[in-house]
């Protein structure tokens, strides 16, 4: 099928989603590490519009945006480990919730991490409201994909390591096991799957990733004042 | 396959609702359009889209599907008779999805910003709109491979994703000739493509008429904001 490369870094969860998918499908790949503070000519060539990671390079062609890459991987390597549900309605639900995770759950978690003072409490409440909706979605199921993990599990997967890192950097707790027992239980099952576990970075790397990002944002704000 | 009732909830002038109309027309699906004002968060709207409370919502049988592009993909998967909306090749599918997301996340927000801007700022945002549209022209060249539509010989996913906005692009020019986005001197291929949509047998009845949009807008006194997606 031709060599597969992933431009990215394993401290970035959108990149790890892609690695998880490739691992589950049994596809060999090479990671080309990117320095996001000094983007390579290859990245700028392969993703000129957004200049972001991850980029999957397959047969010399780039595919960008982690959610689109997951569907691409599922469609190309379709005989092993299906990621998307078969039923069209279930597929549309998976896509809907994936979009919700990236546009609401991730964004509100970041906001809570960045916020200070009074605003922080408001931001934490907003983030928890999004987790509550995910908690309802996992009710009665072992995984979002059913008995086996699938597309939506890979999309939600960042909460097993990156969310605790965000909590640490932001000095707050969002996903506690008493408020969100089902989601917490899901993280424990998810993280012990070998293909998932193998791709996880050390927790300190994720903490460092978000701390660096936060410091950068705060320095930008300070320079505007 | 799909024989249960189909209802589409939303306002006809919404470009997002229009995407769903275009997809349903392509597949010759019988459906009922239930006009809904997105600014009035009725009990019914909250029931069928409790998370975002937005239109369009497609209800097939008793199952609601939300978000226009997700609905279009659902229609393609659920009604397998008739022309395909998404391409078959995985790379082409990823490309179509990428540019559809670009339209929603980059192009449309600029259109909205331009509409809401005061006169001085409007010109600057208009330039950004044109830059984004120029990227879509380049995308058209690559993706269409010399054929009539993004989808090739027939209308496809990306034609629907962008085609739903064409009525509004024409309206922009009608309201002020200085804000011509579909400009044959700048993006000639997209200008021709837009024209083609209004005569294409699959989607022409679904295309939004700028004159009728003007009448609706005058009636509501504001252009649709982001209460649809």
Structure, described:
The complex is a heterodimer of chains A (225) and B (229). Chain A has a 4-stranded mixed beta sheet, with helices on one face. Chain A contains 10 helices and 4 strands, in the order βαβαββαααααααα. Chain A is globular, with a radius of gyration of 18 Å. With 225 residues, chain A is of the alpha+beta class. In chain A, strand 1, helix 1 and strand 2 (30-33) form a beta-alpha-beta unit. In chain A, helix 1 packs parallel to helix 3 (66-76). Chain B has 229 residues and is an alpha+beta fold. Chain B is 52% helix and 7% strand. Chain B has helices spanning 15-26, 43-48, 68-78, 90-116, 119-144, 157-163, 166-175, 188-197, 210-220; strands at 6-9, 32-34, 57-60, 63-66. Chain A binds chain B through residues 49, 58, 61, 63-65, 68-69, 71-72, 75-76, 88-89, 91-92, 95-96, 99-100, 133, and chain B through 51, 60, 63, 65-67, 70-71, 73-74, 77-78, 90-91, 93-94, 97-98, 101-102, 135.
């Amino acid at each position: 099928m031709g060599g597969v490369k992933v431009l990215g870094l394993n401290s970035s969860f959108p990149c790890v989603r892609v690695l998880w998918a490739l691992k589950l499908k049994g596809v060999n790949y090479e990671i080309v590490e990117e320095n996001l503070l000094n983007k390579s000519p290859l990245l700028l060539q392969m993703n000129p519009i957004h200049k972001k990671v991850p980029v999957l390079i397959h047969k010399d062609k780039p595919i960008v945006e982690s959610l689109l890459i997951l569907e691409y991987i599922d469609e190309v390597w379709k005989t092993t480990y299906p990621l998307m549900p078969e039923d069209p309605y279930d597929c549309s639900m998976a896509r809907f919730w994936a979009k919700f995770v990236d546009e609401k759950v991730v964004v509100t978690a970041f906001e809570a991490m960045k916020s200070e003072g009074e605003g922080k409490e408001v931001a934490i409440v907003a983030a928890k409201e999004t987790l509550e909706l995910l908690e309802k979605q996992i009710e009665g199921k072992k995984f979002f994909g059913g008995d086996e993990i699938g597309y939506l599990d890979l999309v939600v997967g960042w909460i097993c390591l990156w969310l605790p890192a965000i909590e640490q950097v932001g000095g707050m707790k969002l996903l506690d096991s008493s408020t969100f027992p089902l989601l917490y239980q899901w993280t424990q099952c998810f993280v012990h799957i070998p293909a998932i576990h193998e791709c996880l970075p050390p927790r300190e790397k994720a903490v460092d990733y978000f701390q660096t990002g936060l410091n950068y944002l705060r320095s930008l704000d300070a320079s505007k004042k | 396959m799909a024989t249960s009732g189909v209802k589409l909830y939303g306002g006809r002038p919404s470009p997002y609702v229009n995407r769903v109309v275009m997809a349903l027309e392509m597949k010759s699906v019988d459906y009922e359009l239930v006009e809904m004002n997105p600014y009035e968060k009725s009990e019914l709207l909250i029931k069928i889209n409790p998370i975002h409370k937005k239109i369009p919502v497609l209800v097939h049988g008793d199952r609601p599907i939300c978000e226009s592009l997700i609905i279009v993909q659902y229609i393609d998967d659920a009604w397998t008779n008739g022309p395909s909306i998404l391409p078959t090749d995985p790379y082409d599918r990823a490309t179509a999805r990428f540019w559809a997301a670009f339209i929603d996340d980059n192009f449309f927000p600029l259109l909205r910003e331009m509409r809401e801007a005061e006169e001085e700022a409007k010109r600057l945002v208009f330039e950004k709109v044109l830059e984004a549209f120029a990227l879509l022209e380049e995308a058209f060249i690559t993706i269409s491979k010399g054929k009539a539509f993004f989808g090739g010989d027939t209308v496809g996913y990306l034609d629907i994703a962008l085609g739903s906005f064409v009525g509004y692009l024409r309206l922009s020019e009608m309201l002020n000739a200085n804000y011509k986005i579909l400009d044959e001197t700048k993006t000639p291929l997209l200008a021709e493509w837009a024209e083609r949509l209004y005569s294409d047998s699959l989607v022409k009845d679904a295309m939004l008429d700028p004159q009728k949009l003007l009448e609706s807008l005058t009636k509501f006194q504001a252009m649709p904001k982001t209460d649809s997606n």
